[in-house]
Amino acid sequence: MSTKRVPKKTWREEHGVIYLPPLISDGTTGPGWIPRLESKDFRIGDYAKKVLQSSDFKPTSGVRTEVAVLKGMLFEDNDRITKNIRVKAYAGTFTQQRKLFDPNAELVCLICEKFTDEEIEAMGLWHIVTMHEPINDSDGGTSLLGARRSGGSRWLYACSGRPGIRWYRGYCFAFVVSQVSSQH
Question: Is this prediction's pTM over 0.85?
Answer without folding.
Answer: yes
